[in-house]
Amino acid sequence: MKILLILPDEISSKLLRPLRIFNGGGILPPLGLLYIASSLKKYGYDVKILDMRLENFDKIITKILKFNPDFIGISLTIFTLKQGVRIAKICKEILPNCKIIIGGSLVTLYPKELLYHYKCFDIGFIGEAESTLPKFLDRNTTCGIAIRKNKKIIVNGACQIIKDLDSLPFPDRKLIANEKYFYTASKRYPVTSAISSRGCPFSCKFCGKTPVILHTRFRSPNNVVREMEECYNMGFKEVVFYDDIFTLNKKRVLKMCNLLKKLKLDLVWSIRSRIDTINKELLKKMRKAGCIRIFYGIESGSNYILKLMDKKTNVKMAERIVRLTKRVGMDVVASFIIGYPDEDIETVKATIKFAIKLKPDFVIFNPFIFLPNSPIYLEFLKNGMDDFYLNFVKNLKFNIPNLQIGNFQYDTELKQLVSQAYKKFYLNHKVMINVFKKTNRKHFLKLLYAGGLFTLYNTIFNGKL
């Protein structure tokens, strides 16, 4: 049996694709699909992956026809739904006997609505599909799925979460064109991504969580290091870890560092973390074991806004940890949110000023957006806001309410503020020289191009090109 797994692109316009350098720092391998592919191959299925972020649309259709799969699996988020529906409809036309499976965070939140409104989707998988999808194909389970039967949508709920992450096979990186992936902050190539844990125990109000994410689970240090060794043997020079919070369990990280030091691999790695899960000892150990960069979600330069976010951190803490991180020789990527509800121009200015003061090597300014199922979104729904995500799932039209969030107009003014924040941070010769030193030359040029396009996009077209 042949199965094709597809990752739609959240940016449909070729012209705007460089903007992902700001949104996500580049294009890294589709870990979710790679895990599912490895699990399917373990059961003997013939699997291929199509990453639409890397392909021209006409070539995608040709590849689908050539492979002629029995099942097509499409990973969906709120940002990729429109492209997902488009490709599913085409697949139904060219391969009418092929079943279309959908999965991902959006399916976990809206399984019934997606199957009801889009006949091009046949089956939806809820939660983690590495175990349920192979069993379903082998006719051994019907839990964790939504399916259409006799014009009715039946939802069988999520199966139990995968407790033992070590039981999963490593992502099969041989299925993708690894040389096409990049991370803007990296100098060493080729680069790949990995994940050593799942879940996050914190409850930041802006974060959209599915029920699965609430359960925190860890891979063992031995298991993680074995995968890093495999990556090294495949020729990778850097691994970017995409855990929500890599340093939640400090003892686990220290054991991992000790194992890496013994192996003496010519391999560097980077992580995502919270400032309140880091200390000096951990930073030193990680640096000696090859960690070169930490991404911190700092979010604001105002303690008042941090409290509203339920972030449980403060400005002084962020300043101390960023300073420590840089002192031990690691780069810092700092991420901030501009325009959180109840922000005013003074708190926005405080955030920009704080970002400049911290002197991170790279900075990301995100306009505040409501995320599906986030506490702040649910709070606004209770207060009478229209459920525009549910409406979008039903008709693919984003009718974002003309909201006044704090002192700013949602969607338009926020994008202008973000553009100004980027200009104030990066249009400094010392910052630009540092970025030039820290990045691969080819990707530095991409960053410059994306910066110009980002400014044009937000300043002239109000983010509506």
Kindly list the characteristics that best describe this protein.
TIM Barrel; seven-stranded mixed β-sheet; Rossmann fold; 18 helices; 465 residues; alpha/beta; disordered C terminus; six-stranded parallel β-sheet; single chain
How does CATH name the architecture of the largest domain?
A: Alpha-Beta Barrel
What strand line-up does the widest sheet have? 3-1-4-5-6-7-8
C-alpha end-to-end distance: 43 Å
Portion in beta strands: 15-25%
Structural Rg: 22 Å
- Overall mean pLDDT score? 88
Give a structural overview.
This protein is α/β, with parallel strands linked by helices. It folds into two domains: 2-155, Cobalamin-binding domain (Rossmann fold), CATH 3.40.50; 185-459, TIM Barrel (Alpha-Beta Barrel). The protein contains 18 helices and 19 strands. The chain has a seven-stranded mixed sheet with strand order 3-1-4-5-6-7-8, sandwiched between helices. The two termini are 43 Å apart. The relative contact order is 0.10.
Give the gist of this structure.
With 465 residues, this protein is an alpha/beta fold.
Q: What's the helix and strand layout?
A:
Elements: E1 2-7, H1 20-23, E2 26-27, H2 31-42, E3 46-51, H3 57-67, E4 71-75, H4 81-94, E5 99-103, H5 105-109, H6 111-117, E6 123-125, H7 129-137, E7 145-149, E8 152-155, E9 182-183, E10 191-194, E11 197-198, E12 217-218, H8 221-233, E13 238-241, H9 250-263, E14 268-273, H10 280-288, E15 291-299, H11 303-308, H12 315-327, E16 331-338, H13 345-358, E17 362-367, H14 375-382, H15 388-395, E18 404-405, E19 408-409, H16 412-426, H17 429-438, H18 441-459
Parallel strand pairs: 1-3, 1-4, 4-5, 5-6, 10-13, 13-14, 14-15, 15-16, 16-17
Antiparallel strand pairs: 2-9, 6-7, 7-8, 11-12, 18-19
Helix pairs in contact: 2-7, 8-9, 9-10, 13-16, 16-18
